[in-house]
Amino acid sequence: MIPTTNEKLLSGSVAQNALASLEKKLQMLRDLVTAVAKGFKTGLFLYGSGGVGKSYNVLRQLEKLEVGYQLFNGRMTAKGLFRAMKAAQSGPTSTGGNTKSSTVSSTNTTLRSS
Asked: How distant, in Å, are the alpha carbons of 3, 27, 28, 48, 100 from that of 11?
């Protein structure tokens, strides 16, 4: 069956709404990352389907803000993440810039300001 013009418009509208919804969520994520990096919030834990841009947007926002960060990419236990964050407090950061430092654990993304 060949779709009608109205069906084509509807499917295009649905796609546009989905993209607008995703962009709204990613903007909220960038705002939360900024709040953590500037010390207005103490941390952020993200989870969700892979490939939607969680880690990418967190890292790009930290680079945009010129905030140093440590990246731990992979699955970690809570204890492993705690140890990594504790060790990162005294270690060098991945990027220069601000004296503030953030820790990013990716797969399920965790951001902590120090």
From this structure: 10, 24, 26, 25, 45
pLDDT score, position 99: 43
Q: 3-state secondary structure string, the chain?
A: CCCCHHHHHHHHHHHHHHHHHHHHHHHHHHHHHHHHHCCCCCEEECCCCCCCCHHHHHHHHHHHCCCEEEEEECCCCHHHHHHHHHHHHHCCCCCCCCCCEEEEEECCCEEEEC
pLDDT on residue 71: 76
Provide the domain count of the chain.
Answer: 1
Nearest to 114 by CA among 68, 47, 52: 68
Quote the radius of gyration of the chain (alpha carbons, Å).
Answer: 18
- Domain holding 106, by residue range, is 5-113
Mean pLDDT by 10 residues, the chain (114 residues): 56 80 91 92 83 88 88 78 78 47 56 58
Q: Whole-prediction pTM value? A: 0.63
